[in-house]
Amino acid sequence: MLDTKLTQRLRQIVGEKFYRDDQEALVAHSYDGTPMLQSLPDGVVYPANTAQVSEIMKALAEYRVPVVSRGSGSNLCGGTVPVEGGIVMVMHRMNRILEVDMENLTATVQTGIITAEFTAHVESLGLFYPPDPSSMKISTIGGNIAECSGGLRGLKYGTTKDYVIGLEAVLANGEIIRTGGKLMKDVAGYDLTKLLVGSEGTLAIITEAILKLVPPPSSKKTMLAMFKDLYGAARTVSRIIEMKIIPATLEFMDNPTIRVVDDFAKLGLPLDMEAILLIEQDGDPETVERDIERIREICEFEKADRIDVAENREHAEKLLTARRSAFTALARLKPTTILEDATVPRSRIADMVLRINDIAKKYDVSIATFGHAGDGNLHPTATTDARDHEEIHRVEQAFEEIFEAAIELGGTITGEHGVGLVKAPFLEWKIGAAGMEVMRGIKQAFDPNNLLNPGKIFAKETRKRVVIDRG
Ligand SMILES: Cc1cc2nc3c(=O)[nH]c(=O)nc-3n(C[C@H](O)[C@H](O)[C@H](O)COP(=O)(O)OP(=O)(O)OC[C@H]3O[C@@H](n4cnc5c(N)ncnc54)[C@H](O)[C@@H]3O)c2cc1C
Question: Record's Pfam families (predicted)?
Answer without folding.
Answer: FAD-oxidase_C, FAD_binding_4
